[in-house]
TrEMBL record:
<dbReference type="GO" id="GO:0045489">
    <property type="term" value="P:pectin biosynthetic process"/>
</dbReference>
<dbReference type="Pfam" id="PF25557">
    <property type="entry name" value="GAUT_1"/>
</dbReference>
<keyword id="KW-0812">Transmembrane</keyword>
<keyword id="KW-0472">Membrane</keyword>
<keyword id="KW-1133">Transmembrane helix</keyword>
<dbReference type="InterPro" id="IPR002495">
    <property type="entry name" value="Glyco_trans_8"/>
</dbReference>
<keyword id="KW-0961">Cell wall biogenesis/degradation</keyword>
<dbReference type="InterPro" id="IPR029993">
    <property type="entry name" value="GAUT"/>
</dbReference>
<dbReference type="InterPro" id="IPR029044">
    <property type="entry name" value="Nucleotide-diphossugar_trans"/>
</dbReference>
<dbReference type="GO" id="GO:0047262">
    <property type="term" value="F:polygalacturonate 4-alpha-galacturonosyltransferase activity"/>
</dbReference>
<protein>
    <recommendedName>
        <fullName>Hexosyltransferase</fullName>
        <ecNumber>2.4.1.-</ecNumber>
    </recommendedName>
</protein>
<keyword id="KW-0808">Transferase</keyword>
<feature type="transmembrane region" description="Helical">
    <location>
        <begin position="20"/>
        <end position="37"/>
    </location>
</feature>
<comment type="pathway">
    <text>Glycan metabolism; pectin biosynthesis.</text>
</comment>
<dbReference type="GO" id="GO:0000139">
    <property type="term" value="C:Golgi membrane"/>
</dbReference>
<comment type="similarity">
    <text>Belongs to the glycosyltransferase 8 family.</text>
</comment>
<keyword id="KW-0328">Glycosyltransferase</keyword>
Amino acid sequence: MRRRGADFRRPVRRRVQDVAWWTLCSVVALLFIYILVTTTKGSNTNSTTSMPPFSLRNFRNERIMESLNITEEMLSPDSVARQLNDQISLAKAFVVIAKESNNLQLALSLTSQIQNLQILLSNAATRRAPLTIMESEKAIHDMASLLYQAQQLHYDTAGMIMRQKAKIESLEEQMNYVNEKSSKYGQVAAEEVPKSLYCLGVQLTSKWLNNLDLQNKLKDKLQSDMKLRDNNLYHFCVFSDNILATSVAINSTAQNSKNPDRIVFHIVTDEISYAVMKAWFALNDFRGVTVEVQKYEDFDWLNASYAPVLKQLQDSEIQSYYFRGSKDDGSTPIKFRNPKYLSMLNHLRFYIPEVFPDLKRVVFLDDDVVVQKDLSKLFSIDLNENVNGAVETCMETFHRYHKYLNYSHPLIRAHFDPDACGWAFGMNVFDLVQWRKMNVTGIYHYWQEKNIDRTLWKLGTLPPGLLTFYGLTEPLDPSWHVLGFGYTSVDPVLIENGAVLHFNGNSKPWLKIGMEKYKPLWEKYMDYSHPLLQQCNFH
Ligand SMILES: *[C@@H]1O[C@H](CO)[C@@H](O)[C@H](O)[C@H]1NC(C)=O
Ligand SMILES: *[C@@H]1O[C@H](CO)[C@@H](O)[C@H](O)[C@H]1NC(C)=O
Ligand SMILES: *[C@@H]1O[C@H](CO)[C@@H](O)[C@H](O)[C@H]1NC(C)=O
Ligand SMILES: *[C@@H]1O[C@H](CO)[C@@H](O)[C@H](O)[C@H]1NC(C)=O
Ligand SMILES: *[C@@H]1O[C@H](CO)[C@@H](O)[C@H](O)[C@H]1NC(C)=O
Ligand SMILES: *[C@@H]1O[C@H](CO)[C@@H](O)[C@H](O)[C@H]1NC(C)=O
């Protein structure tokens, strides 16, 4: 397995034996950013259960101080929970890659081992005491040996970066917003919630599997199968593996709707979160809103021969670019290598007509939004034959095309006005009839393939979105979609009038590092007194 050195600009590559390195690498990287020291610690190759060799305690005392209430456990470099979390994220990434490579056996073993680790985390969250090495050792070893197998199959580079996606994203945000509160805490603080999330996941999954009534209940609900296709209703889609976020997006839409019975939510998640989502939305009613849950692994059409993103995920040169930064003298800033957007749930937004072949108009919501108004008007807004209704972002700031795309490239220069106004993903009205008619997925594939060498754009789903929907985007009134709740201060008038508030940025409201002043906007729609949430020690 390879690792990236602490200084991302001058990657050091080294053979190491074990998975614990990922923990070390990311902690080193975080420390590096936080403390802005130039020294890096020496390497230390040790057993699977070994821990980073340096202490976070000074860091805590000097940097985080009084305002942060984080459990001792999470601050401790010896946190077993953190190690389990790291293994889980890495394993989740390998599941995707193993499946794409048709190694179903490995995918299955990984999935079941992920569940074992989640059960351990769940137990710890329920009893509110840290995990001990003793009780976790076997599971950690078993997982390590599976991960080792995956690594032998040369999935290692891809897996590494997928696992690190959250951390790299967090680094990126920290670099962008060093002065924001979020930058002080970073991932350390962010990790307390996942333990509770895993607990919730395990509880819900076992409820689901052991409770036929519940399964039947959902089936009954979906007898309204007709509703899923009825184009007179209001169809929303959310692509997410985060149960809390999805629940709030749906609940807030429902609470503020004048006709909740006309609302249909279509969730697409991954294999691992599938039962969790099913159980949660069968157990809870959101004012009669219809909720459908699918997993993208079930979409046969979504395969490497069709979707360039999946093909690129398998391409070793791409992997090494995104995941390791080789063939790169370090001139590309780390944020441009962010692998987040190689995640399939992220790219699913380009396949909405394929996901919902019967639908004509869909409102796409990111999972980190909260809805404050009735959204039914979005379904009658005239898009003037455009495909994408979106809020433009060039008014307040300078988010024009030249900011996102490489205008030295002749293809870009020839096709796109550099001063064209950018727009935001997160609350988009998509006209699927026009989409199919104009073959917009084909346009997306064209650009995604042209960017194989990453000279058109570096990062994200927004640049390919800007290319794909160029000339096909209808600007919406800005109050439909207000951005910035995850990293900046927002004008109170905009908050008051906003229909959809978007917590884009690192300070997600479900994390400790969420911005306190904006958390209530979101928490209002989260029932923390729910027995399951109580049991899992949320808040
Ligand atoms: C590995 O860690 C153990 C204690 O956790 C220590 O005794 C041992 O010397 C370490 N081995 C190496 C190679 O650093
Ligand atoms: C942390 O928060 C919990 C409850 O939110 C509280 O009981 C505890 O006293 C806090 N600890 C510190 C050190 O502030
Ligand atoms: C891959 O997807 C294409 C179209 O999306 C489909 O025709 C083909 O059968 C799929 N291949 C597999 C192996 O499922
Ligand atoms: C922009 O495109 C040009 C022309 O293809 C290419 O030489 C250059 O490397 C690209 N810039 C970046 C930052 O990729
Ligand atoms: C859509 O575009 C793709 C790529 O440009 C092309 O291969 C495909 O045949 C087109 N489909 C239709 C229905 O025109
Ligand atoms: C949904 O939101 C309402 C009101 O804001 C809240 O009372 C309720 O508990 C929430 N439901 C769930 C399941 O979180």
